[in-house]
């Protein structure tokens, strides 16, 4: 879900919040890649909104087997072994594997769906280097979010839908949490 969609959803729920007040994992990933590579070329396993976010910030996105700086894994409803195999070969050729999260599941209305975690685990099982986690629950994610906002941890609330990923990660960084 894009930051704009998150803002619209929260506004519909009655929260007085603007797009600028929301920190989403794809934007932290974009910043990470920008610091590492400038305008990165990325093989992305994820939904279309992830492609849009990356290209909006100047990165090139491909779904083809071509030289890339990074293999990025986000939430994908349609990830498959063909994509994971391409990702494996790209990592073997030198691309950095980057995961937005390791969530095993993801709520979708009343349904609990498979998250990015199983795709990350599948890739990790066939490569010889660790996947860089730029999203929750990594301390780097919360540090980046606090830097962007200029807030201190005790002034910040993490609104999340996963105890294991959102709430425990945020609490570990000193943030207040809402599940």
TrEMBL record:
GO terms for cellular component: cytoplasm. SUPFAM superfamilies: HAD-like. InterPro entries: HAD-like_sf, HAD-SF_hydro_IIA, HAD_sf. GO terms for molecular function: phosphatase activity. Pfam families: Hydrolase_6, Hydrolase_like. PANTHER family: 4-NITROPHENYLPHOSPHATASE-RELATED, HALOACID DEHALOGENASE-LIKE HYDROLASE DOMAIN-CONTAINING PROTEIN 2. This is Uncharacterized protein. It comes from marine metagenome.
